[in-house]
Write a structure and sequence with these properties.
Layout: H1 2-18, H2 21-37, H3 39-55, H4 60-66, H5 70-84, E1 93-97, E2 100-103, E3 109-113, H6 119-130, E4 134-138, H7 144-160, E5 168-170
Parallel strand pairs: 3-4, 4-5
Antiparallel strand pairs: 1-2
Length: 173
């Protein structure tokens, strides 16, 4: 399963690396809108994560970082919209000296492991995607249902713009 996720991400990275700024921005905006449109599903999934965390005796401060609400969803979406406003780093020439230059290019596939903070799912995707990279995420197990719902929304948004949904993948086990 992990090999398949990696292979799909690698194949998608070739498409993303050549994708223009306008299409990347459209994909980000569509993904952000889909998160808003799927807010009820995301909050339902998050409520299950929060209930499970409380049952397991998670510290209140950690539960707070896990918990989503309307305002936090709006913050996630606003963060994605802010990434749209950033300059596209792909192709930027950093320096040029006679015959040697430095130019920014996508890495290809980025893997990120992070704690149980569902907002990181969207933030990590947005930054990787803007830089022309596919991303494979492994969030904390306490936020699994929230992350699955957020990733599903992002993938649906990408599909609406005819962008390969394998630009983002979530390791679920």
């Amino acid at each position: 399963m992990l090999t398949e996720i990696g292979q799909k991400a690698k194949e998608t990275s070739y498409v993303l690396g050549k994708m223009g700024t306008n299409l990347k921005n459209a994909g980000l905006l569509a993904a952000a809108q889909e998160i808003l449109d799927e807010e009820n599903e995301i909050l339902k999934a998050n409520a299950a994560d929060v209930a499970r965390a409380k049952e397991r005796g998670m510290a209140p401060g950690l539960v707070d970082r896990l918990e989503l609400n309307h305002k936090r969803i709006e913050g996630i979406v606003e963060g994605m919209r802010q990434v749209v406003g950033l300059d596209d780093p792909v192709g930027e020439v950093i320096s040029m000296k006679k015959l040697i230059g430095q130019k920014r290019v996508p890495l290809g596939v980025i893997g990120i492991i992070y704690e149980a903070r569902p907002n990181v799912t969207a933030d990590a995707f947005a930054l990787c995607f803007k830089a022309g990279n596919a991303v494979i995420l492994r969030g904390g197990s306490d936020a699994l249902e929230s992350n699955k719902a957020i990733v599903a929304a992002i993938r649906n948004g990408l599909k609406k713009e005819n962008i390969p949904e394998d630009a983002i993948a979530l390791i679920e086990d």
